[in-house]
Amino acid sequence: MKEAKWYKKLTDNRVRCDLCNHRCVISDGKRGLCGVRENKSGILYSLVYGKVVASHIDPIEKKPLFHYLPGSYSFSISTVGCNFRCSHCQNSDISQMPVDQNRIIGQDVSPEQIVNLAEKNDCESISYTYTEPTVFMEYAVDIAKLAKEKGIKNVFVTNGYMTEEVLKDVYPYMDAANVDLKGFTEEHYRNICGARLKPVLNSIILMKQLGVWVEITTLIIPTVNDSEEK
Ligand code: SF4
Fold this sequence. Notes:
alpha/beta, TIM Barrel
């Protein structure tokens, strides 16, 4: 558990989390929509800092990034938790665990240990992936800073729902991003993901402006987001 970096204190021990565009207002003792950030006596904490639930050495093409360090391996990690509720999520067992099961699990691994493992396994990058890296951003950035010092690149596989201020803070440590653009209408985002399209589009534009290497993935769901109009 670690104090969150991006939040504002409000009256009556409430806080507003500014990590993602849900901007949850959280009362004392409660958690945000993602289920991994908790207000304890007016201080917001990340409950997943350092708690690794999945780690693998993946080809970078599996992220998928097809034009960034092709042929290389990426040390890939995640914690539990997500700020979306996509009904087609492939990793819902870990992404939705905090909300669906009220459980937060993971092995304690320090940022130093992650970078050492990436080095030892000849990985040219570290990927923050599998669930949604925005919800473990404090941990990801601490790892990314150390990785950068060692010449290891940092890749975020993300839904792009982080706030503008977070992106402006973390982009020096975000070498590449694969943004999952899940559909092309606000209705799709509202009904399928429990979120909004516009902030995602804004993030993609801002990432490009900030010099992040961006690739976009869209999962085609037959009859849902594959019509000519969409
Ligand atoms: S990161 Fe979690 S707590 Fe923070 S605004 Fe997003 S959903 Fe809410």
